[in-house]
Amino acid sequence: MKHIHTFLVSTEHQGLTVEEYIRDVLHYSGRAIQRLTRTKSIRMNGKSVYLQKKLAAHDQITIAEPAEDTYGVEPQQGAIEILYEDTDVIVINKPPNMLVHPTGQTEQGTLANYLAHYFQTRQTIHRIRPLHRLDRDTSGCILFAKDAKTQARLEQQMHNGELKRTYTAIVDGCPTAKKGMIDARIGQHPAFPNRRAVVPEGEPAITRYEWLETAKDAALLRISLETGRTHQIRVHMAYIGHPVTGDRMYGKRSAYISRQALHAACLRWIGHDDQPLEVRAPLPLDMKRLWERKKAASDPSSDSAF
Known about the structure:
Blueprint: E1 2-8, H1 18-25, H2 30-38, E2 42-44, E3 47-48, E4 60-66, E5 82-85, E6 89-94, H3 111-121, E7 129-130, E8 139-145, H4 148-160, E9 164-172, E10 179-183, E11 186-188, E12 196-198, E13 206-214, E14 218-225, H5 232-239, E15 262-270, E16 276-280, H6 285-298
Domain Pseudouridine synthase RsuA/RluA-like: 88-238
Keywords: Isomerase
InterPro entries: PsdUridine_synth_cat_dom_sf (IPR020103), PsdUridine_synth_RluA-like_CS (IPR006224), PsdUridine_synth_RluC/D (IPR006225), PsdUridine_synth_RsuA/RluA (IPR006145), RluA_PseudoU_synthase (IPR050188)
C-alpha cells in the first residue's frame, strides 16, 4: 500500500528541475529522493520522469510513498500529555526523569515507546521521529514529525532559525545583565566522555537569556537557542558562573529539586499551510515549588509569580 501525494506546479516554480522542485519546494531530503527514484515513485503528468526534467507551470507531480510499516520502537502503554496534534506533527509535554528515545540498555519506558502505543491504539503507523532531544531530566515541549516529508521540512526550519525553542530555567546566582548572549564554542569535555565543555575547537554555540524574576541567590530566566549543541544551556550557564540549579553534572545538587531546573517552555514553527504555530508547556510543579522557596528565602512577604 502506498500514499499518493499530488502537487500542481505554480508559475513561480516553472523552470525548476523535478529534483529541485521536490528538494527545495516540497522539502524532501536527498536520501528520500534517492529512495523515490530507485522505486520509480515519481511521475509527472502521469508518466515516468527523470530528475533533471524542467518543469512548466501547471505540470502535475505525483509522489507515491510506501506506507509506514513500523514505529521504529516497541509500542508500550504509558501516559503521555499531548499539547498539540495535527496531520503532520504531534507535540508532547515530556515529564522529567524520562528518556525521549531508547538508547543503550534502555529499550522501554521512553516517551517514544508511549507515543508508538498511542498511535497503535488509533490504528495508525507513524515512525517515531523526534525533531530535537531533551535530556532525561529536562521537562517540556518536544516535537515529533509524523512522516519523512514533514521531518525534512522542519529540519530545514531548524537550520534556517524558523523553528524556535524557548526554555525556562532557574539558575544559581543572578547574571549581572538583565539580558545577555553567550557565544562560546562547545565540544567534547577533555576528561569526561559523557560531558561537554566550552573549548576553542568546539562547534559554534549561541545562547540568549533574559531575567523573568530574580531572588537573593537565584534567577528565573527565559532562555532561547540559536544553535542546538548537546547540553548547550547547561554548559553555557555553568560557563558564565550561573549553573542551572540542581544540575549535578555541571553545577551542584539541590536539596529542593531532584533534577536540573530546566524546562522546554515553548516551541514556534511554520505549519504545513505556512501559518505560524506556537505551543507552550506549563512550568512543572517541582520547578514552581523551587522558585517559591527561592522567593520566600529572599523576601518572606513576597508573592510568587505562580
